[in-house]
Amino acid sequence: MKNLIVAFCLICFYSAVNPISAQESPIYDRAEDLLSNTDTIPDFRSKTNKLKLTGVIYQSDGVTPAKDVIIFIEQPDENGDFDLRQSGDDRYVFHRSWVKTDEDGRYTFYTFVPGNDRRYNQMQQIFPIIKEASKPEVQLESLLFDEDPLLTKRCRKRLIKKGQEARILNIEKEDGMLVASKDIVLPEHTEPNS
Hints:
Elements (H helix, E strand, L loop, with lengths): L1 H16 L20 E3 L9 E9 L11 E5 L9 E4 L2 E4 L2 E5 L5 E7 L12 E7 L6 E2 L3 E3 L7 H9 L6 E2 L2 E3 L2 E5 L2 E2 L9
GO molecular function: iron ion binding; oxidoreductase activity, acting on single donors with incorporation of molecular oxygen, incorporation of two atoms of oxygen
Keywords: Signal
InterPro entries: Intradiol_dOase_core
């Protein structure tokens, strides 16, 4: 009986100390029924380097389009700084956006090219998180920009060595707007984001 009480106390203590991580991810900050396959990041219209980031998400087979996958992105501003805002007790990155893929797995974000934070030698990055229905969210590797002056030959070699060269976005100009395409293949097995 004593062991049972100790086990119960440990479980209660562990549950109180470790909150459910799913509720901490910013991907849950917007209701899923409000999402479409296209969204615009705050301040898009006022930015000079407007970017259309578009692509297709595929099932783990790399061929079948993945329907109803939520994609969340957040990024620094044009100076490389995260614009943090407060809503009640919660802090969040202002430049963020959510989409949900359509039946063809397509998604589009209207955003802007983030800046470098040269003080901390940080490259231009967009930070994506994906979530499939009834699976935990997965934080993907950050997206980098081919034209980033901080993305040196040495950095590129390291990315290639790790098999991560697909993280680098190649930007083209179409109709006066920068456009980058990023297709994503879902991982076979997803582990909870910690």
